[in-house]
Amino acid sequence: MTTTHQQHAAQLLHSLHRPGTPLVLPNAWDVASARIVADCGAAAVATTSAGVAWSLGAPDGDELDREHALAVVARVAAAVTVPVTADIESGYAADPAGVARTVAGVLAAGAVGVNIEDAPAAGTSALRPVDEQCARIRAAREAADEAGVRLFVNARTDVYLRAVGDPADRSTETLRRAEAYRAAGADGIFVPGVVDAETIGALVAGIDGPVNVLTGPGGLPVATLAALGVARVSLGSAVAGAAYGLVRRAAEEALRSGSYDSLAGAISYGELNALLA
After folding, report:
1. Gap between the Cα atoms of 10 and 13, Å rounded
2. What is the pTM of this model?
3. CB atoms within 10 A of CB 139
4. How many other CB atoms are found less than 10 A from the CB of residue 124?
5. Element (H or E) spanning 141, and its range?
6. SUPFAM superfamilies attached here (predicted)?
7. Three-class SS of residue 154?
8. Which of 27, 28, 46, 119 has its Cα between 20 and 30 A from that of 240?
9. In order of start, what are the domains of the chain with their CATH numbers?
10. Burial class (CB in 10 A: 0-12, 13-18, 19+), 187
11. pLDDT per residue over 127-142, tens digit each?
């Protein structure tokens, strides 16, 4: 991707974050899923770190190395014409300098957005201190500025997802982190783990910038989230999980009952082959 093309893609990604008309992202994890998502009319393609890790034989949660993660981002970005934003977990790095290297790699791969989370690893409840996370966000912003690309930095805070602290204090802590992350250079704030309309509405009202929420089966419909002022709706690992769920159902059915009904509704061989031609 040329620098000019990438700059235009970055500007487009920014423009797609409109409160009340959210960017809807059924997250992809490989070229085939990215092509399918784009073919369905998605305005952008987002990767899911969990789906990418699972597809490469690793668990989610800072277990996958930078090189393998970025190789997937590069293949996805080369396979679609819409902007690509990459989920880079907490940066695939131990320090801000490492985050900067990761972001430089994301840009070299052709993507124009990143998610950076403030939880250091799966299985831990504590979040990084705010000043430490801000240093990582600043490093990402500086790396993008140096490359001359207006990278969309989506700062994720896992206050709700990891149930950090007293429930009554989570909104305050989320707003505190959101303000600091925005000041450090984040363009948007991602708050996974929030599912009720009242809390989502309060966070949208209290955050100065586009708000991203995570949803899935049983979650609020896109129309409801739009009415609350959400600017970005992510399906996260849910699509990859559903795909692997189909693998298990089909395998169990074939091995136990000898039937194949679970495979109904599959994309045909010819259609998928043509989509990847």
Report:
1. 5
2. 0.94
3. 24
4. 12
5. helix 130-147
6. Phosphoenolpyruvate/pyruvate domain
7. strand
8. 119
9. 3-239 (3.20.20.60)
10. buried
11. 999 999 999 999 999 9
Three-state SS for 121?
A: coil
Residue 116 is inside which H or E element, if any?
strand 113-117
Q: How would you class 91 by CB atoms within 10 Å of its CB: exposed for 0-12, middle for 13-18, buried for 19 or more?
A: buried
Both ends of the chain: CA-CA distance in Å?
20
Three-state SS for 27-87 is CECCHHHHHHHHHCCCCCEEECHHHHHHHCCCCCCCCCCHHHHHHHHHHHHHHCCCCEEEE
Mean pLDDT calculated for residue range 177-190? 98
pLDDT tens figures, 77-119: 999 999 999 999 999 999 999 999 999 999 999 999 999 999 9
Per the CB < 8 A criterion, the answer to whether 186 and 220 are in contact is no
E runs forming strands in 133-266:
152-156, 188-190, 211-214, 232-234
The H or E element that residue 24 is part of is strand 23-25
Cα torsion 116, 117, 118, 119: sign: negative
Q: How far is CA 49 from the centre of its chain?
A: 7
CA–CA distances in Å: residue 77 to residues 124, 125, 171, 260: 32, 33, 35, 35
DSSP-assigned letter for residue 229: T
The answer to whether the beta carbons of residues 182 and 159 sit under 8 Å apart is no
Name the residue with tokens 């190789």: 71
Q: Which two tokens stand for residue 158?
A: 């896992």
Q: What is the Cα–Cα distance from 219 to 194, expressed in whole angstroms?
A: 10
Taking Cα atoms as reference points, which of 222, 172, 214 lies closest to residue 194? Answer: 214
